[in-house]
Amino acid sequence: MKKIKLVIVGLGVIGRGVIEILLEKKEFLRDMGLDLKVVALCEVDGSIVSDEGIDLKKTLELAGRGELDKHKQWSNSKSIEILGEVKADIVLELTPGNIENGEPGYSHIKGALKNGMHVVTSNKPPIALHYRELHELARGENLELRYEAAVGGAIPILNLHQKCLQINEVESIYGILNGTTNYVLSKMVEDGLSLENALNEAKELGIAEQDPSYDIDGVDTALKVVILANSILDMNVEFGGMKIRGIRDVTPESVELAKKHGYVIKLIGDVRRMEVSPRLIPVDHPLNVSDSLNAVMIDSDVAGELTLVGHGAGARETSSSIYSDVIDIAAGI
Amino acid sequence: MKKIKLVIVGLGVIGRGVIEILLEKKEFLRDMGLDLKVVALCEVDGSIVSDEGIDLKKTLELAGRGELDKHKQWSNSKSIEILGEVKADIVLELTPGNIENGEPGYSHIKGALKNGMHVVTSNKPPIALHYRELHELARGENLELRYEAAVGGAIPILNLHQKCLQINEVESIYGILNGTTNYVLSKMVEDGLSLENALNEAKELGIAEQDPSYDIDGVDTALKVVILANSILDMNVEFGGMKIRGIRDVTPESVELAKKHGYVIKLIGDVRRMEVSPRLIPVDHPLNVSDSLNAVMIDSDVAGELTLVGHGAGARETSSSIYSDVIDIAAGI
Questions:
Q1: Of A26, A92, A284, which to mutate for an interface test with B (greatest number of B Cβ within 10 Å)?
Q2: Secondary structure element (H or E) that encloses residue A206, with its range
Q3: CATH number listed for the domain at residues A2-154+315-332
């Protein structure tokens, strides 16, 4: 049995989902020869540390009631302090990232790597904004920095490329990388709704956030495109170099006209062209997927076009990618 | 540089495609640290053996002209004899398989394993009909038996499951696993053709074989379902246990009626239910893919539904899966 010590930073929707899966899959992981133990949990305003392993069930209960600070091991130590002190194998950085500077994830990831711990993150901005620096830091320390969950949620596009398409050189990657906009555009096609009405429906269902600007304006998609460009196409690009147009200008009339000619309008992130824009997609094309699904097409020189369709969000679904990275790293420890 | 000796059995469309990729990717593979050398090529009526490595360019030229027997190292030794004698690391078994008994691939795979060589195959019948026996033989010899290319051509469904969805338990798998039937059904939907006319078109384009019964009657799909059931769902099932209905009864009227209600008819292989049958699929479902594309949906307990769409056939595309298996095995040698 391999004993792996984890630190979880961020107890939001994703963080709690990751803990739930850990409780649910405890035996399954043991059957794989892995004993995962969480030795530190860090939130914005404090932390819980226990080298013996934290009682996760109790922690989830308290977190659910917003009473994490009532945990008997709760301290006001900041996450960045804990990351500099704790001795663990892998840090799961699961906070939401600031699009301007990638914080607080940027500092968390650096802190973890400098303290000799591998990092798995679902946090887009630090990877998109500081790709080279963080990669070089990890390489220099001989540590792994993995972020499958940051691009496409449950869709294992990075791992598919690395582990299943080894003989291929990838020529282009494009697709639907944002579930909110896809839900909105799908509703405009199916129910003839205006963008505003479709967006309100998405908000009511909890698919869209109250301020969905980052989704609607293509920023979220652009962050993922930057990560894919650097990771898979090795393009060495920056977020500032992206051409970004969101879906605010898409009208019911344009949707209807497209439909009449056998097309749908989708917000497409085009990695090779570093572009996010609404595009016409033939109705029978593999990228024409509905609801809040994501779909990524990877065009490579031997396999040809391969499309992955799946859930781009959701705490449970995203955990699939997080544990895929964790298990890979654990195998190498 | 790791030196890996290969044996290629079968110089049909797939075998020649695999050799072409080897010539094309020689430098790419060397950059990965792999020096792949073909030390034996076996055909039905004879073989070429050279421990120094066979001149593949020359061999392709001769094979293209149907003059392989003019190769200066050509001998009448049968493939099964060569497999018992030659010393190599990996055998690529790329012959077409007999659906009744899995021959000649069945004997080739056994011969290769018994002689201490790993096996990679694109050959469905031996794996579908003799799954347990061949697996136990490989395990007993501590050798790898891999067959990504036998299910879904370029679609890396087995490797995706094994390498990217580690935390998941798969609940069901279903999809379009035969390109010929998908082409025919797509043409019936798009152009209102009868099955016969659509099939004739497919034959003219070389998508369907002159006798397309195995495709049209669902046998090819059923073989893939058996492999997926045993490999991914660990179901221990046999080909005889399959319920198989092909697409011969699908009429233009039923296609039209489905279309009017927002559905298409697709030939679906359902792995959990061990069934192949034409089913109604909503037009906006990820499995509604056109032309000769294949699409496999894998529903698992953490990631949820994930669909892979790609080329289910073609020598070049299938080579992507064959080399994925070869590179994995080489990494462990």
A1: A284
A2: none
A3: 3.40.50.720
HSE on the CB side for B205, CA within 13 Å?
15
Q: Over 90: is that where the pLDDT of B66 sits? A: no
Give the minimum alpha-carbon distance from A331 to chain B in angstroms, rounded to a whole number: 12
Q: Do A168 and B320 touch (CB under 8 A)?
A: yes
Contact predicate B39/B8, CB 8 Å: no
DSSP secondary structure string for all residues of A2-68: EEEEEEEE--SHHHHHHHHHHHHTHHHHHHTTEEEEEEEEEETTEEEE-TT---HHHHHHHHHTT-G
Model pTM? 0.96
**Of the options 3.30.360.10, 3.30.450.40, 1.10.10.60, 1.10.760.10, the CATH number for the domain spanning A167-311:** 3.30.360.10
SS3 state of residue A251: coil
User: Tokens 């080909």 label which residue?
Assistant: B239
How does DSSP assign A91-155, residue by residue?
Answer: EEE-----TTT-TTHHHHHHHHHHTT-EEEE--HHHHHHSHHHHHHHHHHTT--EE-GGGTTTT-
Query: What is the ipTM, given to two decimal places?
Result: 0.96
Instruction: Confirm if B184 and B296 have CB atoms less than 8 A apart.
Output: no
Whether B64 has a pLDDT exceeding 90, the answer reads no
Tens digits of residue pLDDT in B87-121: 999 999 999 999 999 999 999 999 999 999 999 99
Q: Where are the domains of chain B?
A: 2-154+315-332, 160-311
Residues of A in contact with B331 (CB under 8 A): none
Per CATH, the architecture of B160-311 is what? 2-Layer Sandwich (3.30)
Chain B within 8 Å of A257 (Cβ-Cβ)? no
Residue in B37, B224, B243, B259 annotated catalytic: B224
Which single residue is written with the structure tokens 């002190």?
A: A85
Put simply, whether A265 touches B (Cβ < 8 Å) is no
